[in-house]
Amino acid sequence: MGVARLVVVGGGKMGEALVAGLLRAGWAEAAQLVVVEPVASRRDELAARLSGVRVVDAPDRAEGALVAVQPRDVPAACRAVAAAGAGRVLSIAAGVPLAHLESWLGDGVPVVRAMPNTPALVGAGAAAIAAGSAAGEADLAWAEGILSAVGTVVRLPESLLDAVTGLSGSGPVYVYLVAEALIDAGVLVGLPREVSAALVGQTLLGAARLLTESGQGPEALRAAVTTPGGTTAAGLRALEAAGLRSAFLEAVAAATARSQELGRAQG
């Protein structure tokens, strides 16, 4: 059997989503991909869902490896893919610094660290990548090719990945909280809950598409629907009076600080 193009260590939701995205994007054929999953029942699920992809319990030799396991399992995963001869490694393990990844992989193995977020599960993720000391342009482009199959990718120095965690890593949860609050608000003013939920979901989806597809910034889009003395202006006034903008600033700052703390704890 030939050398696989990519071995994905970790058959959880994110690992599965990335493999499915790579197949949809035509990045590789199913036979060129391998997923490593220690739990037998989960291996059976993945084999059924990812037709043609080999699902095994230990890493095979591959051109590259994607580490998608819990932080506590990263040292063993890195040592296993290094022993299997992976030529380059992409890690999406939360909070695990490049220096630690490199120490477990051994000298000279190019490694790229990434911070994706959960909308990758539906092909709409946002991820940032940072290069290790041995990783060059080709390695970054390789990592971008993998992650872009499930969303948008930006390049940043590792020192900014905690900020990415605080913003886009935790950001979907902030949006879910806004959605909950808006649904409750719709019920408060008389809408049936199921109607309020449907309207809120579509409103958030439509607003996100306008923001990303219209070519206009959020300030311009907000101004376009804020008529002086109108309903939207009244609503915005209430939000500003309640400190909504400040609350988001504090949330992102707090999440960033916590990510930094967890990263230090990895040492």
Brief account:
The chain is an alpha/beta fold and 267 residues long. It is built from 11 helices and 8 strands.
Helical content class: 40-55%
Element string (H = helix, E = strand): EHEHEEHEHEEHEHHHHHH
How far is it from the N-terminal to the C-terminal residue, by CA? 39 Å
Low-confidence stretches: none
Structure commentary:
With 267 residues, the protein is α/β, with parallel strands linked by helices. It contains eleven helices and eight strands. It has an eight-stranded mixed beta sheet with strand order 3-2-1-4-5-6-7-8, sandwiched between helices. Helix 3 packs across helix 4. It is elongated, with a radius of gyration of 21 Å.
Secondary-structure blueprint:
Blueprint: E1 4-9, H1 13-25, E2 33-36, H2 40-49, E3 54-56, E4 62-67, H3 74-83, E5 88-91, H4 98-105, E6 111-115, E7 125-131, H5 137-147, E8 151-155, H6 161-169, H7 171-188, H8 193-213, H9 218-224, H10 231-241, H11 244-265
Parallel strand pairs: 1-2, 1-4, 2-3, 4-5, 5-6, 7-8
Antiparallel strand pairs: 6-7
Notable features of this structure?
single chain; 267 residues; alpha/beta; 8 strands; 15% strand; elongated
